[in-house]
Amino acid sequence: MAETQAPRVTYDFVTRAIARTLGHPGKGYFALLGLAVALLGVGIVCLLFLLRYGLGLAGYSHPVYWAVYITCFVFWVGIAHSGTLISAILFLFRSGWRTAVYRTAEAMTVFAVMTAGLFPLIHIGRQWYFYWLIPYPNERGLWPNFKSPLIWDEFAIGTYFTVSTVFLIMGLIPDIAAVRDVATGWRKKLYAITGLGWRGTNEQWRHYTRGYLYLAALATPLVLSVHSVVSWDFAMAIVPGWHATIFAPYFVAGAIYSGVAMVITLLVPIRKLFRLEELITGHHFENLAKLCLLTGMIVAYAYCTENFVAWFGGNPHERAAFYYRAFGPFWWASWTMYVCNAFLPQLLWFKQIRTNILALFVMSIFVNVGMWFERYVIIVVSLAGEPYERFANATYNPTWADWGIMAGSFGWFFMWFLLFVKNFPAVSISEVKEVLPAPRRAPHREGAVHA
Amino acid sequence: MDRRRFLKVVGVTSGGAAALSACGIGPEPTEQLIPYLVAPENQVPGTATWYATTCRECAAGCGLHAKVREGRVIKLEGNPESPINGGRLCSRGQAALQGLYDPDRVTEPMARGQSGEWQKLTWDEGIARLAAKIKDARGRGIVFVTGLETGSFGQLVDTWMREIGGRHVTYEPFAFEALREGNRLAFGTSAIPLYDFANAKYIVSFGADFMETWLSPVGYQNGFTRAHAFQAGRDASMARFVYVGPRLSLTGMSADEWIAAAPGTEGLMALAMAHVIASGRLAAVPADAARLRDLLAAHAPGTVADAVGVEARQIERLAREFAASKGGLAVAGGMTAQYPNGAEIVVAVNVLNYVAGQVGKTVRFGPNHALEGAGSFRQMADLVADMNAGRVPLLLVHGANPVHSLPGTFSQALGRVGYKVSFSSYLDETAAASDLVLPDLHPLEQWNDSQPRAGVYALQQPVMQPVLPGTMHTGDVLLRTTGKPGTFRDYVQTRWRELHGRLGRGLAFEDFWTDALQHGGIYRDPPPQAVRLSLELGKSAPGGAKPLLGWRPSPEEPLLVALPSIALHDGRGANKSWLQELPDPVSKITWHAWVEVHPETAAKWQVVSGDVVLLKSPFGAVRAPVWVSPGIRRGVLAVPIGQGHKAYGRYAKDRSFNAFELLGDVPTAYGGRAFTVSVAVARTGDHRRLATIEGDAREQGRGVIEVLPLERAERLKPGQHPFAEHGVPSYAERALEEWAEAQHKKASLGDYAGEHPRWAMAIDLTKCTGCSACVTACYAENNLATVGEELVVRRRQMSWMRIERYYTGGDHGRPVGAVVTPMLCQQCGNAPCEPVCPVYAAYHTPDGLNGQVYNRCVGTRYCANNCPYKVRYFNWHNFAEPGGEWESWPDPLNMLLNPDVTVREKGVMEKCTFCVQRIRAAQNRARLEDRNVQDGEITPACAQACPSEAIVFGDLHDTSSRVAQLARDPRGYHVLAGLNTKPAITYLARVVHGDVAETGPHG
Amino acid sequence: MTKGSGRAAVGAAVACLMTVPAAAQNGQPAAYQAPVISDTGKLAGPRQPLFFRHDVHAGQYQIPCLYCHATVAVSSAPGIPSMQTCFGCHQLVAGGKRPFGGGSTLSAARDSAARAAEAAEVRKVQAAWLGKKPSEWVRIHALPGFVRFPHMRHIKTLGTESCINCHGDVRAMSQVYQVATLKMGWCVTCHVQRQVSRDCTLCHY
What we know:
With 451 residues, chain A is an all-alpha fold. Chain A has 16 helices and no strands. In chain B, helix 10 (266-280) packs across helix 13 and helix 10 packs parallel to helix 14 (342-355).
C-alpha cells in the first residue's frame, strides 16, 4: 500500500504528524468538548428526574413498553461493531489500508459499548436493583433466569466491552512508547506508565505481534455473536415484527453498516482537525465506502425479506404489523429508514461519490440517522402497531425525558472520544509505518521502533 | 393518614399495623403496637369480619356484606340473602367505600361567617343555631328536601315537618315519573311493579336501561341473564331480546336486535304490536282489552311505520314472536326515553303487556318498587317557585344535590331563601351554597332502615367507627334539635318493634332484631296485587282514538338525549375515583363527558372524535368533545349525565360539562323532567385527546370474540369443538405434543412434583353484558391505583380487568351491534411472559398461575411486550407516595387498602393472579380444618361481583368442578389459541338469535 | 350481628378472664425462676414503655403463649393482648411476691427494693387500664409489607411450642429482643430443611 502515501511521508514524518495531534488543544477542541459535556449534563439531569418520579416521565404507553432508550441501546451497540471488524477481521485478512483508520474505529467501539451499556440500566423500572440481573450467590438461593435473552445480552455486552478494551490498549502500547519518547511534562509520565515499559526489542515485538494476532482471532467471532444476541432480545419475543429468523444476520449487517458510517463521520473532521490528510487518504475512505455499500445492500435485502415473508406467510398479525409500518401513523419513521438505509447508499456505486470526502460525510450522517430510525421502527412501531389485541393498541409520543437522555448519551460518547484523540495517538504509528517503504538510511530513533 | 387518628378510628392491633405498612414495597419502619384496651368482640386480627347492611347509592337498595379488617371496612360485596340483588353488586355500590373514606368529606359542623368564609362550629353550637332558625321560621314554610327515604329517617322527617308546619320534599333526579304516571293511566295505580325478567321468554325494552339506572339494575340484570343465557339442552331456548331506542346503550349491547326507532315514537310501535296481537288473537287477550279496539285500530303497523321509521313487516314479526313466546315482557319508562310524551309510551307498553296477557305473569304488581314513593319533578318546580316568591324562610337539604341537577333555576332561587342548612357529608354544590353544614355520617356508619321493595325491610347498621369523629347522624341531630329523648338507633328499634308485632312470627324481639341484623333485614313475599285496565283508558286515553303523537322532536335541529351514566348515576358518583376511572361500558371514556355523534352526522359536520363542539339548547350551552360512534341513530346526539361539578371534592370538581345545564326545568305533562332537548351545534376548532382505553373499535377477525347463531349452538353435541384451531399440519401437531411432553417432564421437579390444582376460569360471553362491575371489584380487592385523566389519555390506566367492546356490522347494510368480553390475565400454561423475565419475577406457580412477584420485579417490561393479551400493567409512577403528584389513596382513602395485597411500588409490573390472596386464604383455612379446598370455595373478586354470573372459577384438574365442565363445553374457545399459549381461561362463545353479527373477516 | 357468630367469641373472652392459668394458680414455684433485674440498661432489645417480663410470665409461671397471643393458632396475626387481658390477672395479682430465681441471696433491703420495683411495674399496668391508656409497645418482629406470614399454618404444623423457633426462647428473656434475622434466606433455609414448598406466591402477593 506504499503508493497510497505521498513520498514525503517518512517514518519520522509519521511520528511527528501523529505526535502533533497530541499537541496543545485549540479553541475548537475545547468548544466541542464543552458541547459534549453540556449534553451529558442534560442527560444526567433528565436521568435524575426519571429516578425520582419514575419512568412515567418518558413517553411510554400501554402497549409500547420499550421505546427510545432501547432504540439508543441497539443503536450504540451497532455503532460499536465496525471497530472490531476493521481492527480485528481486516487485520486477519492482512488488508493494509486498515492501519490508518483502525485506531479511531477501535476507540469508537469501546466508547460506544460504554454508552450502550448504560441504557438497559436507565430503562428498567427500579434502576437501583440492576444488580439483580447479575448472577451472584445469595442466601435466598435466587438466580437470574438464564432463559431470558436479557441475561444473554448482559453477558454478550460484558464480554464485548472487555475484549475490545483490551484490544485497544494492546494496540496502543507501541504507539504510546513512541509518543512517550517525544512527549514532555506530565504526559511523559502518563505515557511512561501506560507504555508499560515498551522498548521495542525483537523479543517484545515477537510476543506483541503473536499476542495481537491471538486477540484479533478472539475478537473476530464477537463481531458476529454480540449483535446476534442483541437481535434475539426481539427475535425471541412473539411480537409481530420482531419474531423473525433473519434478525441475527440482519442486525449484524446493520450494525457494521452503521458502524462504518460512524467511522466516516468521525474520521472526516479528525483528518481536518489534525491535518492527517497524508495519512488518511481518499483511498481509505473509498474502502470504507465500499464496506458501507456491501453492508447497506445486505440491510436492504433484509428489508425486502421481512416484508415479503410478512406477506407470503399469510399471518394476519404479521401482515397488519408491516402494513402499519409503511402506512400507519409512523409512516414517516419507516420511510426515513427505507430511504436513508436502502436507497441513498446506492449512490456509492459511483466512484465520484466514493472518492468525494464531503459527499461521503453527508452520506454517513444519513446512514446514522437511518439506522437510528431502523431501531425505532422495529421497537416502537412493532409494539404500537399490532399488539394482537386490537382493543389495546395505542400510539406513542416521546417526551423531553426521552430526548434528554438520548442527547446525554451522545454527549457521553463524544466526551470520551474527544479526550481520547487528544491524549492518545488516534492513528496507529507503528502499523502505519509497517506499510511504509523502508527508509534509505536507518535514522537513529525510528530504528528502535522499526526494529 | 396521621397514625394517631388511624388508631383512634380502628384501635390498632399488630394486624392493623401491618395493614398500614402494607402500603409500599420495602421494609416498614419499626413502629408502635398499641393494644386494644378491650378487645372488640368477634374480631380476630388478621381475619376479616363481615357485617350485613344496605346499599344507599341508589333507590334499588341492594343488600350488602361489608368486609371489615381490624375495624376498617375494606370491601363491599352483595348480600346473597337479599332478594334485591342476590349477592351481586354494581360498580356504584362497591364504590360506596370511597364515599366513606372520601378525603374531601366535611369533618365537622361549619357555618358561613359575615364575609362568607366557613367557620368551624361545635355540635352544640351547630344544633343550637339550627334550633334557633327553626324557632324563627316555624310555620312560615320550612322545607326539608331529602333523597328517597323509605324508612325510619323519612318517617322522622315527615313527623317532624308535620309538627313544625313544614313540608318534606323527596327529590330524586331519576324519579321515573313517566313510568308511574303511565301505570296510573293504564292501571289506575302509580305503583311500579316487579318485572320478572328471569321468567320472560321474549323481552322488548322501549328505552328502559334496566342494566344501568332503571329501578333495580343489579337484580334485573341478573334476572335478564337467567332468561337470556344459553344453556345447552335447556327446554326453553334462550329468550330473545329486542332493544328499541335511539342509542345502543349498555342494555342495548346485549340485545339480539337493536331497532333505532325515531325518538318519541316507541309508543306507536308498542301499540302497533298490541294491534297485531289483539286483531290476530295471537294471545289470550283479556276480555276488557276490547275497550281498546278504537285505540289499537288507529295504530295499525302500516299507519305508524313511517313515523317510527321501521317497516310494518318488522313490527308484525316482532308482535308475532312476542305473542308466540308465551312469556313476553315489554318494559319502558327509562330515563333515556323520558321524552315529553314519556308517559304515553309507558301506557302503550302497558297495553302491549296487557293485550299479550302478561300482566300478572311477567309484570307482577305487589312487590312494588320503592320509587313509587319518590317525589315528582313538579313538586321540585313548585318548591323553586315558592323559593323565588320568598315563601321559604328555611331550607333543609339532606341526601340531594339539586344545585347540580337543576343548575339554572334552583341555584338562582336559592338566593331568595332566608337560611339554608345542608346535612351533606361532602361539600357538594348545594352544601357549598348553604349557610350551615351539619355533616352526616356515611350510610356505612349509620343506623337506618329502608323498604326498597314491598315486603323487603332492609336494615342498615354501622359497620365501623365513624371515620371522622366530628360527624353526626342527621337522625340524632334532628332528635336533639327537637329535644326528643334517645338516639336514632332507638328510634329505628321502636319502628322495628312495630314490625316485630306484624312479622315477628313468635320470636322474642331481641332474636328478631339480631336475626334481622345478621341477614341484613327481613324478607317477605307480599301478596300479588291484581290490576285491571283503567276505565278511562278506553275512552279518554291520551290521544283517545287519534294516534299517540303527543310530541315529535323538531326535524331541523338534532335531538340531544341526556344519558344517565351507570357509574356516576345523577352525578353522585363523580367524587369517587374508581367510578371516574371506570371506562364507560359503551364509550370506554373515563374522567370526562362527551357527545356521541353518528359517523354520517360527524362526516356532515366535518368533526372527528376529540373535536370540541358547542352544544346550545334553549336552556344553556356546553362545550363537549365529540365521540363518533355507530351506536346511535342518525341526527340524534347523546351526552352522559354526572360530570361538570362546580364543587363536590377533588375528583368531581371542574370535569368537562354538566349535561343538566342543557335540559329544561319545566315539568312535563306527567310531572316529570324531559331528558331530551333540541340543540344547535357549532364547531369550536378545539381538539382534545379523549381519555379512552379503546384502541381499535373493530375486532378485525382476530378471534378474540366468537359468536354462534342459536340454531348452530343448539345442534352442538358434547365433545364437538367448532372453535378448535384447524389447519395445523401434522408435523406441527407432533412437534407440539413432543414439546408438551418435554414441558411436563421439566415441570415435575421440586415444588412442581406431585399433584397440584390448575386454577382456571370460564367466562360465558352470552351472559357478560359489559356492565363493568368486575372492574371495580378488582380495584377494590387488589389495591389498584387510579391514575387520573392525564395518564389515562397516555394509556397508563392500571385496570387488570379490561372490558373490550367491539362494534359489529354497520357496513353493507348489516345491522349495527356490539360484542363485549372481559380481558384479564389468561394465566397461560405456556406463558410468553415467563421465559423472558430476567429475574423470575414473572414465573409459573405449581398451581398453574402466572405468578408475579412484585418485590422481585426490576421493571424491564419485557413481559408486557411479550404478552399477546396485553394484560400486564406497569407502575409508571409511585401511586402510593403520600402527597405525591400521582397519589392514588390520599388520606384517609388509604384505609380501604386490602392488607392481604401488596401495594405496588414505582417501577414494578403488576397483573391479575386470579386473586391469589383469596386462593391462599382458602388453602390456609382448609389446612387448619384438615381438608381439601372445595370447588366453589374460592371466588375471585370479579366473579363474586358479576351481576350476571358470567364468570366461574375453579380447579381444572378436578374434573367434577364446574369450571372443568364448562371448559369441555362445545362453545368453549381460547383467545389467540393459535399462539399455543394454553390459556387457563375458557371463553364460551356468545350465542345470538338469527345471523351471526360478524366480528371480522375471519372464518 | 355478623356472619360468624359473634356471641360465642364474647363468651370465650369472658371465660378467659375468669380462669387464671393453671400454672399461675397453684402457687408452687416452677422449675425455672426468673432472675432479679436491677439494671435494665444491660438488657438486649429495645426498652419497652412498661417492663413486661416474658421470663416471669411465660418462664417462671409457665403461662402458655396462646393465653395472651390468643389468635396465633387461627389467624395470620398472633394478636397482642388487650389491656383487659393484663388486668384480668393483675386486678388480683399485685406483683413482687414471686420467688426470686438466679440463685439470688439478696440482702433484705435489696430484696424488698426489687419486690417494690416489680410491684411498681404492675401498678403501671393497673394505671394503664384504669386511665384507659394502653401502653405503646415497641415493635420488635416486623416483616416487610410485601411478605405474608400466616402464623396459624406454622403453629398448626409445628405445634404451639414452636414459637421459640422464630422468636427465640422468650421464657428466658427479661426483655424481648429479635433472635432470628427474619430475612428471606432464613425463611428459605427452614423451608428447605423441612422440605416444604418454596413457591414465591406462598408469601409474596
